[in-house]
Structure formats: C-alpha cells, structure tokens
Amino acid sequence: MAVRRNEKILRPEPMPGRFMVVLVALVLGFTALVARAAYIQVIEPDRLRYEGDLRSIRVAQDRIQRGNITDRNGVELAVSVPVQTVWADPKVIHDRNGLSDMRRWQAMADVLNTSTEQLLRKVENPQRRFVYLERMLTPAVANYIAQLRIPGVGLKEESRRFYPMGEISSHVVGITNIDAEGLDGVEAVYNNLLTGTPGQRRVRRDGQGRLVEEIEVTESLLPQNLTLSIDQRIQSVAYRELTKAVRYHQATSGSVVVLDVNTGEVLAMVNSPSYNPNNRSGMQPHQMRNRAISDSFEPGSTIKPLVVLGALTSGQVSADDKLNTSPGWMRVGGRRVQDARNYGELNLSGVLAHSSNVGTSRLALGMEREDFLDLYSLMGFGSDTGINMLGESMGVLRDQRRWSDFEIATLSFGYGLSVTTLQLAQMYAILGNGGVKRPLSILKVDQPFAGRQVFPSELTRETLRLMESVTSEDGTGTRARVPGYRVAGKTGTSRKAVAGGYGDEYIGLFAGVLPASRPRLSIVVMINEPAGDSYHGGTVAAPVFSAIAEESMRILNVAPDNLTGRQLRVAGWGSAND
After folding, report:
1. For 243, how many CA atoms within 13 A lie in the half-sphere containing its CB?
2. Peptide bond into 515 cis (omega under 30)
3. CB 517 within 8 A of CB 501
4. Of residues 294, 301, 355, 412, which has the active-site annotation?
5. How far apart are CA 168 and CA 182, in angstroms?
6. Active-site residue flag, 301
7. Do the beta carbons of residue 239 and residue 249 sit within 8 Å?
8. Using one digit for the tens of pLDDT, what is the confidence trace for 121-161?
C-alpha cells in the first residue's frame, strides 16, 4: 500500500512580507554605503586625506642661524652659537618604563638645577608626545644627560644669541627671546632680515619609513647680517666715561650720543644704568630703557647757539654787535629773567661764553615771532630723527597760536620745550655740517642720505666760531677743552619740572662739535640728577665730553687744528740733531 505524503506540509508556503523587508534592508544598506563612499570621496574628502597625510607625509626643515650684527669695522656685537635642548616624549617614557630607575632622573635634576618632582610633573601625562625639559644647555651638561640614556629623553640642537660686548652696546643691539625673536633694539626692528626663512622638504613615506615621493622642496631664504654705524671703540670709551661720571656724581642716570657730522651716522649711543644681555637674572625694566632716545628733558642753555644763529639769519644783529644785559636782569610780561650776575655789555660770543639769559631773551624778542619758532622746527625738535629705533620720543614742542613774551624768552634759554639726547646731538650736527639737516642712521651707510639746507652755511660757520668762546678762560665750559683741538660747544643746566613748577633736581649737559675748523663729530653728554652741590653742565658733563672727544679724535685719526703754542711729538727714528 503506497504511503501518501502530506502535500500541505512539503509544499513551501509563500512569505512575501519577509522577503520584501530583507530586500528593502539590503537596498537601503547598499545605498547608504554608496552614499557614504560618495560623501567621503567626492563631497568631503579633505578629512580622510588630511588623516592619511598625517600618517605618510613628513616635513624636514633646514637649520639656519640668525644673522650676525657687527659694528662698522666688523667687530661682532651679536652672534648665534649652537646649543643643546633636552626634550622628552612622555608616551615613550611610560611605554618603555622610563621611570623605573629614579636615580637617573635625580642625576638629571641635579645637573639642571631643578627638582625631580618638577621634571616628573612635565612627563606625567602619557598622552603627550613632546615637552621641553630644559633649553639652551651647555655642551658639557648636554653630554652628561645623553650618557644617562633615559628612554624617551632626547637632545635637540638649537642656537643661542650671544652678545660679546655685553652691557656696553645692549641698548643699541637689543635682545632676543628664547626662540630667537627680537624683543628690543636693532634685534627687534630688523628681526625679519636677521631671521630669514628655513627651507623645507615635504616627502611621503610608507609604513616602513621608505621614501615614496618627494612632494615639495622650498629653498632657504638665508638671513642677512647687519652692519651698524656704531664704532665699538668709541662706544666703549663713551660707556666707560659715562659710567664713571654717573657713579662719581651719584647721578640717577646719564646718556651720551656721538654722531658723524658729515653722514648722520650714530658712532656711539650709551646709557647708564645698563644691563647685561647675556645674564638677565635680576634685570629691572628701567635698565632696558634706551634713555638717549626715549627720555626727553628741557635742554637749558644748550639751545642758545640756535637763538644766536636765528638772530644772525634774520639780520637783526651782526657777530660784533653788543647787547646791554645790565643790570643782570629784565622784566618780561611781569616776570623776571636774570643772569648769574651783571655782565654789562656783551657781544654774541660773550652771550654764549657767559650763558646770558638776558642776552638771548633780547635776541629772541627782537625777531619775528614766526621766524623764531621756525628755528626749533627746522632743527627737528618735535619730530623723529629718522633713526628707525623702537621707543624713540619726539620730545615736546608746543603748537599754539599765541605765545606770550615771557614764553618766548624762556624758550630762548631752553625752557618750555623738551628734547632727547639724540635730538640735541642732531642739532649740533646741523651746526657742524654747514646747516644741512639729514636723517640719522644706526646702520652703516655707503653714501650719506640726501640732506636739506635749513640754515645758511656761512652763518652756521660764524655761529661755530662764536661758540668757541664757551671753552675759553672766561667761558662756562673750560673743562670741555680737548688738547690740540678747537671745540665749539655749549654748557647747559636745567631744573627738572615738578607739579606746580620746578624742583631741586637738575640735569647737567654739554653739547659740542670738533674740530671746530672742520667739524667731524657732534657729541652730547647728559647727566641726570647729579647729587651734591656740583650739578652744573660745566662741571659734571663737560669733563666727560673732553675725555670722549680726545680719544675719539685719536681713534679716528683726525688731525689736530689747534697746535698754537704746543709741541707736536712724532714717533720715529733719528737723533735729536736730525
């Protein structure tokens, strides 16, 4: 008997609902994958490309040293020297048990003058991949750390800025930070030129570190070396004499500027106090201030040659005319202008020699008001000198429509305006080069900048001749004499302004040019707040001028122009009878 099968059980039942669900799910999944792939590769491929580049592209940089700074004769003022920096990879340290031997960390802490705890805090995060432990190490310290062989600790070569002349030229040269970026002085102003641009080589490497392709090569832009106008020999002399004077007179500070009259180059610019750029521990902010260009003051009687020149230019007086200064004082606008004593009748050289306030006041009040005020603008007061240095002050020269007679009188003997040491040196350089005004330069120049004739050359030479009386026996600047050379200069002593008037602090000044017959240098000495009874420019600043000027003439090999009554000794072979 045949067995009949249950056809209902053997026959598969149709399941259209499940089939459709699976089919739709597959289609949606495939569509999502296609859409995601299209989104990643077409619409936003940058992220994955970036991540891929991070794993395969490497960049190597060329090391370039910062450019050197030298004086006009090639003496190095700032150089870069190679040093080592110790760094760490915290992840490698933790992965390779770099903290297991604490004796090595203690040895490294001792040589770095720090504590073990401070070093361990820097590497405690295993997610970090780079951290500095100490920068700018000496070769001996770096070699010692290398011999410790701590896993994850390595050395990296960097450069450190070194200043061979130290505090003597620090205000001019400036300093850099630990990353060799200029912070002050020439280092900051010309940072881009001194830095240059390191070259780069971008390559792609595979997982084994093998070179796959060279993507881009950028050539290095080498840094430039700077040659300053400074003559380090004169700079050193000026700094030595200034610091001696500031210390001897217990002054608050002082500045000296030496200019080349014919080119406008700054041959020396020094300040006291100064700082050592190679050791900045304990350095105070006030020590970093370049007072020769940043601090302004009332110039006092050093401005009087300008008034004499203005009077000669206006035709009001001639060099031999006499002024009556009796009885040693005069009333101007209800106020009193007076001299140290009654000098009676004075010619123009006598006005300068005795520094007569009454005499210069009469000259100023006799000129047209606008012509008188223009004298100060033409000399550059109230504007920058063109030296292109950070922190330069333009001083104060008021621009007002109405000036009283007393304001004009006080302006004639150096009150009512403020100038910097550099601006005053520029004024005397204009007097020394025949009335030509040109921008000043802290960089050595092959050809002097084009100048502008602001005063007649004949009258400036006449004014220089009159200024020579200041260092005569009757003058206020006898201590500024330079053996063998004629000096045309002027002393100045100004009281410092305080709230409501003037206090008991003074500024002692001497400004001059030499040799007077053919001027080469303009020198200004400023001593701020000398202590004691000796505070006049003729006693505190004039001797500094003399010492700097004498050695500068010898350094520059400038022939004497005042050998009358003096013997000239010449070194050489021969007997006394030759």
Report:
1. 14
2. yes
3. no
4. 301
5. 18
6. yes
7. no
8. 888 888 888 888 888 888 888 888 888 888 888 888 878 88
